[in-house]
Design a protein that fits this description.
The strands form three sheets. Strands 3, 4, 5, 6, 7, 14 and 15 form a seven-stranded mixed β-sheet that branches. The longest helix has 22 residues. The chain has two domains: about 150 residues, Quinone Oxidoreductase, Chain A, domain 1 (Alpha-Beta Complex), CATH 3.90.180.10; about 140 residues, 3-Layer(aba) Sandwich (Rossmann fold), CATH 3.40.50.720. The two termini are about 15 Å apart. Helix 3 crosses helix 4. The chain is α/β, with parallel strands linked by helices. The model has no long low-confidence stretch (mean pLDDT about 95).
Amino acid sequence: MMGTNTATEVVLPGKVEPAGLRLVERVLPPPGAGEALVRVEATAVSFAESAMRRGRYYGQPAFPFVPGYDLVGVVEQVGPGVDGALVGRRVAALTKTGAWATAVLLTAADLVEVPDGIGADEAETLIVNGLTAYQMLHGSARVRAGQTVLVLGASGGVGTILVQLARQAGARVIGTASPRHHEALRALGVEPVDYRDPDLAARIRELAPGGVDAVFDHLGGKSVDQSYRLLNRTGTLVAYSIASSLDDKSSVLLIFMALLSKLAFWNYLPTGRHASFYNVWAGAGKPGSAKREAFRARIRTDLTRVFELQRDGKLTAQIAARYPLSEVAAAVALSESANRTALGKIILIP
């Protein structure tokens, strides 16, 4: 039987196919000063891991490393300087890497308590995806009641939360997705459009002849040009990924810099439109800095708000599938499949 401080981790050894992911066991040291040992209850697969295994996620660590952008778990031990009352509490953490494991050592100050009444897998759908959706909607775009927004990839992990939050804010929502997801999206209050429609822009203009107030674009590349053109005279474009470049052979840094340059150029034009790139880690600062403390406070406030919406039944977790950690290769393969048949997040249960 596994000891308290033993963990099974998924290691990404290099640029490999999903089947190349390795399960490795190692002994964790006791929590150090300011640390907590968290027994992981749920983590998930996101676009970031698909990019990382191709070596195409800007700022990823050198191979080999343990992927996993976020997690939910229970605190089992704490180190010196950490309140012992944290032991036994269910917490969430934004990690960027390291979450695909049965147990992890984390900085206790980065943990956000999960309210009672929310399951681990439900809470997991809301960490990076919920933060991204909430901060883009209310911070970047400042969407208000009566506005019309366009969500690209409305059936994905971020998209399914974003459309619900937009509807909660009183906005009309148009969402692109595969036709197989249209009925489920309508149930969430979305007006769906087939993302593969060769006349996609024309279909959206039929629904919003005067343009939309905000577009949330995860594709990058040529998609942002179309997204910008679909805005009304005072609309806001929020780009938050470069998913369309996943299989591109060009430099990720150059692609990203080209996108940022384009957004900046649009903002210099004498129009009422605005364009920006959202990054959940923006303003994180260095460990121990005032910026890092402000970043932690913002994450805790916004994530707690999203958890409360879920607890109160105003936000429904959309789970596409659940896999044990030992079947991570199948989970990643499903995540990257063009034929996904379910909405939302793919959960890993350690």
